[in-house]
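To fix ideas, we quote verbatim a fold written out as tokens:
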Amino acid sequence: MKLSDWARKQGVSYKTAWRLWKKGHLNAYQLPTETIIVRDDPAPSPFPDKVAIYARVSSSENRDNLDRQAERLVQYAMAKGYQIHNVVKEVGSGVNDTRKQLAKLLVDKGYRVLIVEHKDRLTRFGFNYLRNWFESVGKTIEVVNESGSDRDDLMQDLVSIITSFCARMYGLRRSRRKTEQIIEALKHDKEA
């Protein structure tokens, strides 16, 4: 079968299929006309069959949307022929870096692809860092929908960022005052 037909059957772009062939991951050969033919054999697919699904919403008010998001991702994975390892649903801000469910998922070795609906469902900032880390451990992130996200979620995340910065700023002032008090106490002890 031609490489373009194989790519369509696998649900990937021709460019991805071509890269796989170029790296030697496909059982294929090239004709004198430069057409690449993929052999139909029972060789294992170079695509992972176990996936993890991660769904997230910013607040508990959107919990029903969380279930619908997870269901859409399950249907997507089934349509692609993936075997679902687990489905993780979490309520929390995309700027929060202490989400427990995501932390567990990141160290789980039972899957090779993480499926998210939008980039911002995984994280608001630093998506490319996560993507690079995933690639370094032999995993990938598959984003189903690359379009924009809800305005309400963006507003809530903006409020979270401002709150976080304010807390840090006032915390720094408090720690500076504490340091000054310790220095004064030490000076006082030295004089006495």
Q: What stands out?
A: Residues 151-191 form the longest helix (41 residues).
